[in-house]
Amino acid sequence: MKGFLHSYETCGAVDGPGIRFVVFMQGCPLRCKYCHNPDTWAPDKGQETTSEDLIEKISRYKVFMRNTGGGLTVSGGEPLMQAEFVADLFKKAKEHDLHTALDTSGVSSPELVETVLKYTDLLLLDVKSTDPQMYKMLTGVKIDYFYKTLELADKHGVEVWLRLVVVPSFTDKFEEIDKINAIKAKYSNISKVELLPFHKMGEYKWAELGLKYELEDTYEPSSKTMEELNRALNE
Fold first, then answer.
1. CA-to-CA distance for 88 and 86, rounded, in angstroms?
2. CA separation (Å) from 18 to 53, 87, 165?
3. What is the C-alpha separation between 1 and 111, in angstroms, rounded?
């Protein structure tokens, strides 16, 4: 089966447990204002590959992944834009006894989400914002996909890590944390919540693509803010 990749990383350490082979798929329907990889948006870019060739590359590192409790993570862009390819890749990864993680916003049809979840051990689900209006403003899409994907993960017993990017003046609110705590209390398969500080390391890519970066005057959240939000999260 053929798919289009943006890139891959052989020894990732932040996209799931252990050392991981991280595949970044090409194409994304969201237009997040803080996206640090806008070069992944266009679905007709990237390098073409097959799931057979890719799993052959991945399997070379399986000793390192197994020894650290790691595995394969597929990210993006939005990997669910190529759901059938990802499902096929994950199926092959399970044949090699590799742990699989899907890093996604959940924006896709329920049928395609379930196609991938059948072979997914861990769902890294981006929450963006718990407020529907803020979510739409930040991403350009509705929040409904997030909740539907969360429900499907719960239905199939897939472990979930929620991820929120803390963007000053947008998602650095205690109200966000309260709502996330309520979501976590509702779904027993949510084992972890990660608060990720906003950064502008990808701002130069917007300029290279001729795009206006609307958050140029936004700065990274302070360590004090992150500590306070994490404290509220754990309480």
1. 5
2. 23, 22, 22
3. 19
- 122, 100 in Cβ contact below 8 A? yes
Rg (CA), the chain: 17
pLDDT confidence bin for 128, thresholds 50/70/90: very high
Is pTM beyond 0.90? Reply is yes
Find the helix packing angle between 83-95 and 110-117, rounded to 10°.
Answer: 10
Q: Are 180 and 162 in contact (CB under 8 A)?
A: yes
CATH code: domain of residue 102: 3.20.20.70
Neighbours of 74 (CB within 10 A): 32
Torsional sign, CA 120, 126, 131, 134: negative
Give SS3 for 205.
Answer: helix
For 213-235, the pLDDT digits (tens) are 999 999 999 999 999 999 999 88
Return phi, psi of residue 194, to 5°.
Answer: -115, 130
Contact assessment for residue 54 and residue 89, using Cβ atoms and an 8 Å cutoff:
yes
- Domain span holding position 208: 2-234
Residue range 108-137: mean pLDDT, rounded: 97
Q: Contact at 8 Å (CB) between 24 and 72? A: no
- The pLDDT tens digits for 62-112 are 999 999 999 999 999 999 999 999 999 999 999 999 999 999 999 999 999
Q: How many domains does the chain have?
A: 1
